[in-house]
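re: ur question from earlier - yeah i can do the single chain one, its not a big deal. heres the input i used so u can compare w yours
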Amino acid sequence: MASDDNNSTVALVVAAGRGSRMGGPVAKQYQSLAGIPVLRHSLLAFCHHPAINAVAAVIGAEDGELYEQAAAGLEMLPPISGGDSRQQSVLLGLRGLAEQNPDRVLIHDGARPFVSATVINNVLAGLDDSDGAIAAMPVVDSLKQGGGGLITDEVPREGLWQAQTPQGFAFSAILGAHEDADTGHTDDASLARAAGLTVALVAGAPENSKITTAEDLARADGAHAARLFDVRVGQGFDVHRFETGSQVRLCGVDIPHDAALAGHSDADVALHAVTDAILGAIGDGDIGRHFPPSEAKWRDADSARFVSFAVDRVHALGGRLAHLDLTIICEAPRIAPHHEAMAQRLGDIVGLDANRISVKATTTERLGFTGRNEGIAAQATATVRLPI
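and the output i got, formated as tokens:
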């Protein structure tokens, strides 16, 4: 998101529906797509867009815990409880943003997980000359009108568009339109036009489709995997010295020892190396650039936050973390008894199965600072798959 304090453009992600056609134990926006909830894909697209100043979600009143999991670690405005229909949920969401009072708002369906930065840019550009702008795709297939199982008429497709989201508007104008609107509008553009607002059509994208059924979700998951031809490998290395203490933390697991690791955060040298490896694979700097030790807010921070941040950066690019290989270098403590717990915790943080994570340990045969038992080093390799 934009780094300044001016909340001129806010994204409102609508995710309060139940998705009855999908089936499954939870609503469609919380089901897994490419290893993370559908909704998280949508949130990431806006949270990492430089022109978006803030992001809020409209959620079902009963979905608080699922939402917290989907939005974990993301910089979000407080969630807003939705209503019984999409139109009512958007109205409640807009009212919830009144305190922010942005110049513009982009309204997006949480079940459209693959919205791109290009589509967001197109909608924002469309707002330069109109009260509203929506992403849309021109209809290319022949259209038929039918009845009783037979074609009854041909429908000309010239000038027809398939509406998508985001749909962007001047905030005060769309809030007023929603406050005064009758029920039954199919989308925000329909409601806006009924209120006399001008709405531009801008280029959407085929992949920016809405997930409605289980078949849609399966196709989206397959299509996502099929696009990941760009294989990247990054490496990370980190060192922390020992200080007075009674345990060390490695991969989020506290291991009893006669010393602790010194560091500005929790000094988890293993997770620091993993973070740098993931960031390195996508050419996104290192842990020090994103979490500088000069900033007091990172003092004693849980390093799992750093790793989750790096994984989110991969997801924001439409990619997927494929494998992690971690080696811990020390004379003591013994790592072998904790291999399984460390691999399990690391898998939980990054969302990988155990067969895609390797946690190993070695010594330097008492050579160097680790051989003198002055600290612990760790090196990691991350394999990432990105779309071409």
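The chain has a mean pLDDT of 93. not sure if urs matches, ping me
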